[in-house]
Amino acid sequence: MSTARPLTALRAIAVTATLPLLLTACGYGSAAKKEDDKSANTAVDAGKKLSASEVRIGYFPNLTHATALVGLQEGLIEKELNGTKIKPQSFNAGPSEIEALNGGSLDIGFIGPSPSINGYVKSKGSNLRIISGSASGGVKLVVNPDKIKTLDDIKGKKIATPQKGNTQDVAFLNWISEKGWKVDPESGKGDVSVVRTDNKVTPDAFKQGSIDGAWVPEPTASKLVSDGGSVLLDETSLWPDKKFVITNIIVSQKFLKEHPDVVEAVLRGTVKTNEWIHANQDKAKASANARLEAEGGKPLDAKVIDPAWPSIAITDDPLAATLKTQSAWAVKAKLIEEPDLAGIYDLTLLNKVLKAAGKPEVSDAGLGAK
Hints:
alpha/beta; five-stranded mixed beta sheet; 38% helix; 17% strand
């Protein structure tokens, strides 16, 4: 199983939302490693063109999608494609990215676990495969400290999540249930008012007082803190191993079948991107911010990105066992029926790339494609 390192330091952190899964500390220095790298890039070195002229890659303009942000900004993914062009596509919500994948306008995507599960189940296992992990952690409960001082004070308050049934919404509903409180998952009404609010709108809603807090990913969490909020809970603390999947890499099954060489090249690029991030923390943070600026026209302030960056752990490992848990939470909340997730993962190409790079292979927790 691979390990991941927090985004700001090459050290394991037990602090934010599931940081550690430290990617491996192996560099590209040893002779054996160089031979592995050579074999992993044989097609590229030989000048062999890949089977597709273009690959359409989707992602969110979020720090939890740092692999995509940095990999695209620095050209680290493109470098592995040997002339195959990347067509990047930015999305603001999982359902729209799944729709693009289903509709054939997207080939590969960075996305959270809940939309991955929903997309797989709704298509009866026919539309996607999870082919890699990307990030762990980076989710916090931020509150107005004048209104909420303890976790018990959450009862009776209005707390935002990004979207009904999304990864943070499911986690918050499960936390509410564990407290013994009741909330209708459809309306969000109950002992706590769960207010489904787009992450772009949440900071303004918080400043205006229409919500008392939010269970949100980075950088939204740190934006709320910069506006006077206080971190009351880091979701990392709720997980036994202090880590959980927040971002996966998925692929259209059709594209995977027709262009496995392109998918493998993209995965070489993401693995090398993750290693570059861990070796160049400050540069990687700046690179991610530059990509966010290109997406939204404005970079994140230092007071936002500096605390947000170390709360996310970049990892190749999809942390498949935690996806099982998140699925069980969604079932418990009655947002989905008991899903059959057999076959949702295909880590064959990722493990091939990891092995060639001298890194440990990762597990699909028994949910791999047969």
